[in-house]
Amino acid sequence: MNVITLWRARAWTLPLILFLLLTLSLSLKPLGAAAQTVSVSGVTLENRIMLGGSALQLNGAGVRTRAVFRVYVAGLYLSRPATNLEEVLAAPGPKRLSVTMLRDIDTAVLGRLFARGIENNIDRRTFSRLIPGVIRMSQIFTDHRQLRAGDTFTIDWLPGSGTVISVKGQVAGEPFTEPEFFDAMMRIWLGAQPAEQALKDALLGRSP
After folding, report:
1. CB count in 10 Å sphere of residue 75
2. What is the pTM of this model?
3. CA–CA separation, 73 vs 144, rounded Å?
4. pLDDT tens string 13-62
5. Bridge partners, 62 (sequence order)
6. DSSP character for 15?
7. For residues 76 and 99, what is the distance between their CA atoms, to the nearest angstrom?
């Protein structure tokens, strides 16, 4: 190979390498961005969030349906993976259940459904102790009258504080300090009689 031919080969090789590297970098960026969020029924959920100074991972997410209607999307955030209720309750640090509405709903009805969900999943003695908290939780939702499609609420467990309910991004009242209250709330979705079995499986990261 003479000098001119060698020079021409190198002249073509360098731009080709640069082009391939640029193409590879551009193709990887969308993948990285997509991995940061999950879309469920049109609702975007972060894969990782910060709560109470701790990093939490999305354990699972799914849709609550009633009859043929999609009511809301729920996502469960924990410090470590969990595949059953016991592992969820045992997970250390903060925890969060986030809900995004897919349709408008009367919040008084929602509060009553949550109260019934708690009662159906704990023994009578424990429920009797939690009645004041259950009534206050129901009142929090009743006071908002209605949640519209796109509105959100969260149920957080913050060690040292208790259970904190936030509606539309605003903390609703004082924390529920009873240690069992967050556990009772989680049983609405993850207990022996969950709101919906398919949603329970989704929140626990179980394959359909």
Report:
1. 24
2. 0.82
3. 19
4. 544 444 444 444 444 444 344 459 999 999 999 999 999 999 999 999 99
5. 74
6. H
7. 9
Q: Among the residues of the chain, which ranges form H helices?
A: 3-34, 85-90, 107-119, 124-143, 179-190, 197-203
Burial class (CB within 10 angstroms; exposed 0-12, middle 13-18, buried 19+) of 41: middle
Q: Of 168 and 28, which is predicted with more confidence?
A: 168
> What is the band of 66 on the pLDDT scale with cuts at 50, 70, 90?
confident
Which residues partner with 51 through β-bridges? 54
Residues 69, 167, 195, 130, Cα dihedral to 10°: -150
- Beta-carbon count within 10 A of 36 CB: 10
Identify the residue whose tokens are 């595949």: 83
Q: Yes or no: say if 26 and 18 are a contact pair by the CB < 8 Å rule.
A: no
Structure tokens at 146: 């209605």
Query: Are 61 and 38 within 8 A, CB to CB?
Result: yes
Instruction: Give residue for tokens 């959920």.
Output: 45
Q: Taking CA 81 as the corner, what is the angle to CA 61 and CA 41, rounded to the nearest 5 degrees?
A: 10
- Give the per-residue pLDDT at 155: 97
- CA count, 13 A, side-chain hemisphere, 202: 18
Question: Which DSSP string do the residues of 115-152 spell out, in sequence order?
Answer: HHHHHTTS-HHHHHHHHHHHHHHHHHHHHT-EE-TT-E
Closest by CA position to 132, among listed 187, 178, 170:
178
**In degrees rounded to 5, what are phi and psi of residue 91?**
-60, 130
Dig out the tokens for 199 from the structure: 């949603």
